[in-house]
Request: fold
Amino acid sequence: MKALFINPPVYDFSAFDLWSKPYGFLFIVDLFCKNGWEISFFDFMDRNHKFYDDKDKREKKYGCGNYYYKVLEKPAIYKEIPRRYKRFGLPQDIFFEFLENTGKIDVILITCAMTYWYPGVIEVIENCRNFTDAPVIIGGGYPTFCYEHAKKIGADIIFQGGDIRYFVEIFNAQTKHNLMYFDNLEPCWSVYEKLSYIVVRTSYGCPFSCYYCGAKKMHPEYRLRDQDEIVREVSRTVEKYRFDDIAFYDDALLCSFTHLQKVVKKITEIKKFNFHTPNGIHPRFINKDVAFFLKESNFKT
Reply:
């Protein structure tokens, strides 16, 4: 059996690689690997793809940088916005060549983080339909928050939230295949040939219930990850890719500060990394001790 995983292009006014990787998606990749499936993976937003070798990547600090883009005509709803509308990510012809060389596909899985990035999902589904009749499954932030809209864009199965056990139930019920759940899942970074950084979580969910936040739709319960599991995740990956930067994807990174301290201390025993917090941190939890720890541990942004 072969599964094709796709991180689609981004349609937006601006986009910048600020430690952007489909972290949760990579756990689903690992699930299929552990079930003995053959994996094909295509990330339109991979700035380390060979396509960029002869391009000016304009690499910024800490592994970040600009994406290749193409200017598009603005959709009608954006006509009055005085900015250029763009498609960010690898060109479609590279994807077409990839599909032609992939062979028979049994299932296609597509992720989409932001709700308004759905045009990239539509593009990918339409292109895949020209190559295969394999069932298409979409997941991530977009279908989680915009389920009714997601039902209309051509996917066969829509997965909401971040519960992988629930994903297995849906997959087994709605396809002719059968998956087993594994407790020891980890992000399958090996689908990338090169990495300038990795992202990691020390926790899932958030202990707060702010009315404007969708965190609980993805992860209803706040839970801490096993510290040794996190360290193994980093250790195995840095051994292969030799990166210097790690971004934390936690929704509430400082809410369990003792846990974070222990994780960071163990990770820094591997090597000295630059740490980043693109999801932000709660200012109310920053005191003198916390500030000194973050500084001394090499938190940069």
